[in-house]
Design goal:
Pfam families: Cyt_bd_oxida_II
Shape: globular
GO molecular function: oxidoreductase activity
Organism: Chryseosolibacter indicus
EC number: 1.10.3.-
Structural class: mainly alpha
Number of helices: 13
Family: Belongs to the cytochrome ubiquinol oxidase subunit 2 family.
Radius of gyration: 20 Å
Length: 341
C-alpha cells in the first residue's frame, strides 16, 4: 500500500495546484484588471469559480491527512519549522473564502463591498505566494533539524531567495492557469481576446519568474539544475512542458478550449514532475543531509494499509460526487445564462 498512499499524496498536491491554483489565479487576474472591465470580469470569474471553489481545498485536506497519518515525522517537521508560512497560508485561505462569500451574498451593498474586494484579491495573491514558499522550503536544504536559535529553526528555512522565488513563480503559474481556463468562459469574442492577452502576459511573467528560480537556486546552493536537467525523466518532462506550451498557443487560435485547458494542466504537471522526480523519495531536504524520505519515515505497515484502503474506497464515493457537483453548477450557470437572454 506504500505506493498507493504516495500516489494519492502526489495526486492530491497536483490537483490542489491545478484546481485551487486556478481558483487563486482568478483573484490574481482580477487584481490586474482595469476598472473599465472589472464588472464583466468578476461576473465571468463567479461563473468559473462556482463549480469548483467549494471543493478545491479538499485536495489540500487530503494531502495533510496523508502526511499526518502516513508520514507523521515529516508532518511534524514541516509543521514546526514552517509554521509561520503555513499560518499565513491558512489565514489567506480563510480571508479569501469569507471575502468571496460576503461580497457576493451580502444583502446590503455599501462601502464594505470595496473592502471585500481588496481582501479577496490580496489574499488571492498572498496565499499562493506562501504556498510556493512552503513548497520551495521543503527542498531548499535550509531546514535545520538541530537548530538551536529561533531564526535558524523558524525563519531561515523559508525566508531565503530560493523559497521566495518559488513563491512568485507559483503566483505567476496560478495566474496563467486561471487566464487559460477563463478563455473558455468568455461569452463573446472581445472577452475571449482579453483573457488570451492576460494569459500571454501571465505566461511571460511565469517564464521570467522561472528563470529567477534557477538564479536563486544557484545563489542558495540548491541543485535545481542537476535535478531538472541531469535526470532523463526531468529533462523529458521539461521538453514535454515546452512542447505543450507551443501547442497551447496553436490551439488557442483554433478556439478549442477543452484542448488548451488540458494542455496547460499537462504543462504544470510536467513542471512539478521535473522538479520532484530527481530527489524522490526525499520530501524534505535538510541542512545536514539527513533528508526525510517517504520510504524511510513512513508509518507502520498496518497504518499505511488502513490509510491506503480508506483512500481507495473513499474515491469510489468522493469522485462521482465531485463530478455531480461540477455538473450541477454548470447546469445552473447555463440555465441562468439562458434565462438572462
Amino acid at each position: 500500500m506504500d505506493e498507493v498512499v504516495i500516489t494519492y499524496l502526489w495526486l492530491s498536491i497536483l490537483l490542489y495546484f491545478l484546481l485551487g491554483g486556478a481558483d487563486f489565479g482568478a483573484g490574481i487576474i482580477e487584481m490586474f484588471t482595469s476598472s473599465k472591465r472589472i464588472k464583466k470580469t468578476r461576473t465571468t470569474l463567479y461563473e468559473a469559480i462556482g463549480p469548483i471553489w467549494e471543493s478545491n481545498h479538499m485536495w489540500l485536506v487530503i494531502a495533510i491527512v496523508i502526511l499526518f497519518v502516513g508520514f507523521p515525522v515529516i508532518y511534524s517537521t514541516l509543521s514546526v519549522h514552517l509554521h509561520i508560512p503555513i499560518l499565513i497560508l491558512l489565514l489567506g485561505i480563510i480571508a479569501r473564502g469569507t471575502a468571496f462569500v460576503f461580497r457576493h451574498y451580502d444583502a446590503i451593498h455599501d462601502n464594505m463591498q470595496e473592502v471585500y474586494n481588496k481582501i479577496f484579491v490580496w489574499s488571492s495573491f498572498i496565499t499562493p505566494l506562501f504556498l510556493g514558499i512552503i513548497a520551495g522550503s521543503t527542498v531548499s536544504g535550509k531546514i535545520d533539524l538541530k537548530a538551536d536559535t529561533f531564526e535558524t529553526a523558524y525563519i531561515y528555512p523559508w525566508l531565503n531567495w530560493f523559497s521566495i522565488a518559488v513563491g512568485f513563480f507559483t503566483v505567476a503559474l496560478c495566474g496563467f492557469l486561471a487566464a487559460v481556463y477563463l478563455i473558455g468562459e468568455a461569452t463573446n469574442e472581445e472577452d475571449r481576446k482579453e483573457f488570451i492577452r492576460k494569459a500571454k502576459n501571465a505566461n511571460s511573467i511565469a517564464v521570467i519568474c522561472g528563470i529567477l528560480v534557477f538564479i536563486a537556486a544557484e545563489a542558495n546552493e540548491v541543485p535545481l539544475v542537476r535535478w531538472v536537467f541531469g535526470d532523463k525523466v526531468g529533462l523529458g518532462a521539461v521538453l514535454a512542458a515546452t512542447i505543450s506550451l507551443v501547442l497551447l498557443w496553436v490551439f488557442v487560435h483554433a478556439k478549442n478550449e477543452l484542448v488548451i485547458r488540458g494542455l496547460v494542466a499537462f504543462q504544470v504537471t510536467m513542471i512539478l514532475l521535473a522538479i520532484s522526480y530527481a530527489h524522490f523519495p526525499d520530501l524534505v531536504i535538510t541542512t545536514s543531509g539527513d533528508n526525510l524520505s517517504l520510504i524511510q519515515y513512513k508509518a507502520p505497515a498496518a497504518t499505511l494499509n488502513a490509510l491506503g484502503w480508506a483512500l481507495l474506497i473513499g474515491s469510489v464515493f468522493i469522485l462521482p460526487a465531485l463530478f455531480y457537483l461540477y455538473y450541477s453548477f454548470r447546469k445552473k450557470a447555463n440555465a441562468d445564462v439562458g434565462y438572462s437572454h
